[in-house]
Amino acid sequence: MSHLDEHLIEHRQDSQELFKGKLLHAFRDTVTLPDGGTATREYVVHPGAVVIVPLLDDGRVLLERQFRYPVGRVMIEFPAGKLDVPGEDKLACAKRELLEETGYTAKEWAHAGELHPVISYSTEFIDIWFARGLVDGGRRSLDEGEHLDVFTATPEELLQWCREGKVTDAKTLSCALWLQNVLSGAWALDWRP
Amino acid sequence: MSHLDEHLIEHRQDSQELFKGKLLHAFRDTVTLPDGGTATREYVVHPGAVVIVPLLDDGRVLLERQFRYPVGRVMIEFPAGKLDVPGEDKLACAKRELLEETGYTAKEWAHAGELHPVISYSTEFIDIWFARGLVDGGRRSLDEGEHLDVFTATPEELLQWCREGKVTDAKTLSCALWLQNVLSGAWALDWRP
User: Is pLDDT at B169 greater than 60 in this prediction?
Assistant: First the structure.
């Protein structure tokens, strides 16, 4: 942001905890608007997360099917997880989540970008990683209460599902944009061991 | 969902209101897991929203810059808004939000798809609409406390910003996937007056 944004920026006057649950931690802040007025902003504080686009050697991608209670549907998603281990960096989190949820490790990783799923009421960001050189260790270790299927699809199938409405998860749609442009060569990645 | 998903589906036992604020309305449900165990699910109830990809006659798209308090940044976004008028259908909401936020009306509309921004803790869905035949009425009517800039960019600029991390809003990234495939001819839209 620059001084050119001053006519848009809101400044915190006060912050009040609304609620601390097992998952949700919500606040209501009072802010000064750019025009000098006052408003309240309610939002959820989130530690951030990672999502992984796992590229198999045969050109397919690794995906998950998981029931998501708030939307009441089984959703097709790329593997993802929260940055909830203190001190763990994002790449380490991506490696851990890929292994825990799918049983796979990867020989090479590339950082793609970042996304903000819900900028109107959550601080959440999701860091996007690509993984290749995948090896199936055959051993998942899901969190308690976590049930999900792992499966593979071609990028063409995934994009078709995005078009048909079979994929509606925003992080997975955002990753599909990355995948399409990486595979076409339009967007380059910096791969590292 | 089909009976093939029974090993994934969670069933509600009980629902408890956690908090009702001015914006956030949160619940904690107790659910039966597929393995017969019990877990709690905390989530925000949201009325749903629409997002609009406005195509100008010169090939540019209409975008907004808006400060989003929870993420503390000025974000580049497609116009969007909540389904918060009782009885209003999604297309009517898209027309209203485009007019209110940008001052533009559109001669033709096409429904693209749907996205779920945050399937782990919100019921929110966002319906994606394309608009063309845009006419600038020159008159915006922003909600109280709403401050935003309207500007235009080429689709190439927008995609470049997605790649560079200047666009990180998930609904806008998801719309960029739609835009890229609609413009290439890969994904067809059904335009209506």
Answer: yes
The answer to whether the pTM exceeds 0.90 is yes
Please, how many CA atoms are within 13 Å of residue A44, restricted to the half-sphere of its CB? Answer: 30
Q: For residue B155, what are its two tokens?
A: 């689709």
- Nearest alpha carbon to residue A53 among A125, A155, A136, A148: A155
* CA pair distance A45, A181, nearest whole angstrom: 32
For B147, the closest of A34, A162, A173 (CB atoms) is A34
**Binary contact (A26, B21; C-beta < 8 A):** yes
Residue of B nearest to A47 (CA): B71
| CA distance linking residue B172 with residue A55, whole number of Å | 24
* pLDDT tens per residue across span B98-116: 999 999 999 999 999 999 9
Which of B67, B142, B151 to probe by mutation at the A interface, max A CB count within 10 Å? B67
Instruction: Specify the DSSP class assigned to residue A137.
Output: -
Contact A163 B7 (CB under 8 A): no
- Among B68, B113, B168, whose Cβ lies nearest the Cβ of A120? B68
Question: What is the DSSP annotation of A56-98?
Answer: PTTS-EEEEEEEEGGGTEEEEE--EEE--STT--HHHHHHHHH
For chain A, percent of residues with pLDDT exceeding 70? 98
Choice among A144, A146, A156, A164 that is catalytic: A144
- What is the predicted ipTM? 0.96
Contact state of B69 with A10 under an 8 Å Cβ cutoff: yes
* CB distance A167 to A176 below 8 Å: yes
Chain B neighbors of A130, CB-CB under 8 A: none
